[in-house]
Amino acid sequence: MPARSCYRRHSGEFKFQLCADIRAGKIGRREASRTHGISANLMQMWLTQYDRGDLNAEEAAASVVAEYEAKVAALERKVGQLTMELDLLKKSPRLRLVSDSASSSIVSDPHPAPSGKDAK
Fold first, then answer.
1. From the CB of residue 39, how many other CB atoms can be counted at a distance below 10 Å?
2. Which of 1, 21, 34, 56 is the most exposed place for a label (fewest CB within 10 A)?
């Protein structure tokens, strides 16, 4: 049984350029479909959007800019989070070293709480 491939996303610029090339006669539908691995139905949908004016260069460029802005914002959040963690680690006192025989935990003190059979 062959593995299913994941869905691909095509940028607005790619769609616009491909549709413009098809309408200008630079490339045929069948050739574009084979070259880029796009189904005929998807190609027709893009061409319909192109003919209506839903696909245009400005919107395509705007979508790329929006994608980049989202990536920049996500990276800025990550940098902020890592900076806060680094500051916290720099300010916290170093944990004292505990001998191998004693078990320690950051959450509790070095000696574990007595269990049911040890507590009397």
1. 9
2. 1
